[in-house]
Amino acid sequence: MSGLNLAQQEAVNYLHGPCLVLAGAGSGKTRVITHKVARLIAAGLEAKRIAAITFTNKAAAEMRERAKQLVGKGASEVMICTFHALGVRMLRQDGAALGLKPQFSILDSDDVTSILKDAGGSTDAATARQWQWAISLWKNMGLNAAQAEAQAADDNERITARIMARYEERLIAYQGVDFDDLIGLPLKLLQQHADVREKWQAQLGHVLVDEYQDTNATQYELLKLLVGERARFTAVGDDDQSIYGWRGATLDNLKKLPLDFPQLKVIKLEQNYRSTSAILRAANNVIGPNPKLFPKTLFSELGEGEPVRIVDADNEAHEAERVVARIQSIRENGQGKDWKDFSVLYRANHMAKVFEQAFRKAQIPYKVSGGQSFFDRAEIKDLCAWLRLIVNNDDDPAFLRAVTAPKRGIGHQTLTSLGVFAGQYKLSLFGALFSPSLASAISSRSVGGLHEFGRYINDLEFRARHTQGAEDARTFLVDWLKDIDYEKHLYEGEDSEKLAAARWTNVMEFIDWMAQRCGGQIDDAGGVTMASSKKSLMEVAQTISLLSTINEREQEQNVVTLSTLHAAKGLEWPHVMLVGVNEGLLPFKLDDDGGAKGQANEGILQRLQEERRLMYVGITRAQRSLAVSWTRKRKKGRDTIAAQPSRFIAEMSLEKATTKEDPREKLKALRAEFARKAQESAAAAGGA
Length: 688
Ligand code: ATP
Ligand code: MG
What we know:
Blueprint (H helix, E strand, L loop, with lengths): L5 H8 L5 E5 L5 H14 L7 E5 L2 H15 L7 E4 H12 L10 E2 L2 H12 L4 H17 L3 H6 L4 H20 L1 E2 L3 H12 L1 H10 L2 E4 L7 H11 L5 E5 L14 H9 L4 E5 L1 E2 L4 H11 L11 E2 L8 E5 L2 H17 L9 E5 L5 H10 L4 E4 L8 H14 L4 H9 L7 H13 L4 H5 L10 H22 L3 H15 L2 H8 L3 H22 L18 H7 L16 E5 L8 E6 L18 H23 L2 E10 L1 E4 L2 E4 L4 H5 L11 H25 L1
Parallel strand pairs: 1-7, 1-8, 2-3, 2-6, 4-5, 6-7, 9-10, 11-16, 12-14, 12-15, 13-14, 15-16
Antiparallel strand pairs: 17-18
Helix pairs in contact: 1-2, 2-3, 4-9, 5-6, 5-8, 9-10, 9-11, 13-25, 14-15, 16-17, 16-20, 21-23, 22-23, 23-24
């Protein structure tokens, strides 16, 4: 119980019923979860009967690390993972009850876009993405296509709902699930199959959920069915940090909890252990104007600390220079010595670029988190498509990618004919390959090419099943890439040799990473287990689509973090710089809400409140120093426009406003002062 205050101890010791810890930023909510995992184990609950659910894979990795420090090896069996990873585990074990094969594929966002293009008969990716967005929100609300159509507000929604129906048919045919299904299908499983429900309820002795404010409706339903009547769970959250409303998260989950569980024990934490008083005051002032769902007070005993700085800059490049100067000066003053003590946070991914350039120039090591992930790279997607197809032959999106990467003389026309043929006979593309009547639809030369590909996949599949451990896996992967001549494919596809070489390096890194996973040397970032035993290549390949980071060791690098505000949730750094704090960026542009006028206003108000919470999240990441910067001009598309500081800067109501640190600013101010004086004296002379 060391390192916990009384309220935290109460939450940790409350083992036999539902518990909600509701508290502001930095008050030790996540710490409650890790300590409670340890407490449950100490109280005799088997580690494997505990599930701790985090918001990201990265957060899961961090929590696993901390749990290991607290309980040692015993922690390794705790299921510390995201809702999605838990969903995968449930579906792999019990999805058969829903007609899902254990080797189903997880489709990524690009796969979904192209399936939707096909299902909706459109070649336009933007349109397909709009459908994707709408369908995802419906799924998060727990609606299927028929229900979505029934509640459609207009023709547009009705059409989208019908496309959703066709989309769902395709997913079933491909034995594929999208990200939302990883929550929706396990829920359906528990709702419709009492035996499976009872099994999971008996299996899980306690469920803990971090960042509860950002769960969506289906996640809440899933949680309820997982814990059952005994309701042994601990949720921790902060309504002021709810920042995923745009993706379907709902604060209703917080409101409903005391109603659905009348015996709920609610614990509030009031002491903030992260930030100085100056920082905390700015945070409290910003969140002030938002309506209070649950009133909270937060105090810090870490002292007043450095005042929060407001920094203004001419434009983005100048802003980046000033950030570099600030980092250098803090390091020179000895207030922060490690690069990893610093982070630069912004509203949108594209804003990172100018800071990356400035950091490279100043030789400051950095990493961009929440940006394009390793698994979004074309070459890695190619390899993953092959592995997915090996695992699940019915995965048509993977088939289409693998058969053309590298190109093997099977053209678009052949693939289209194959698709039509497969559709007629209700077969997957792979399933159609060896159909005796295929020859009637496709020229025999093309059939030959397809057969060759199919036989090769079968061969790989056989070998992958019998590949166990790191060394075997490495040999398998290297041989395979040689077989398909993938390196040559990269060099032919890329104009610059340097780029091709970089891609090939990524491929090598991927092989290493796969091999290590097969050897059990690194934890499963899918978060499913961290038992370190050898795995077959097949097993590792099955979890692949769920991963978003190449490896968690990255975290230990001593580098400055560049991150979006959303990806910074739950984290902390000694020195934080919030950049681009301009109207139109933070709050993000609020003026393009569709719908009827009254509705639009309501929508804008809610979005403004969510943006304000985002600012609150940003401020509360800082431990010792915080700088908030804005630019007088900013790029918008190709134009440069005049820009205003964010209203949130005024809302922080800092006592002492702007501090001028930049010599250029001083010079400018002096010049302005001279000009004003000159004008005054001229005016005085004229008046005389
Ligand atoms: P957020 O709302 O940002 O997710 P949180 O409420 O989860 O924050 P934690 O990350 O658990 O807060 O804790 C914030 C910091 O305070 C961490 O560095 C943690 O180690 C420290 N901390 C938490 N509780 C205590 C305590 N009782 N004594 C000392 N330090 C603590
Ligand atoms: Mg936390």
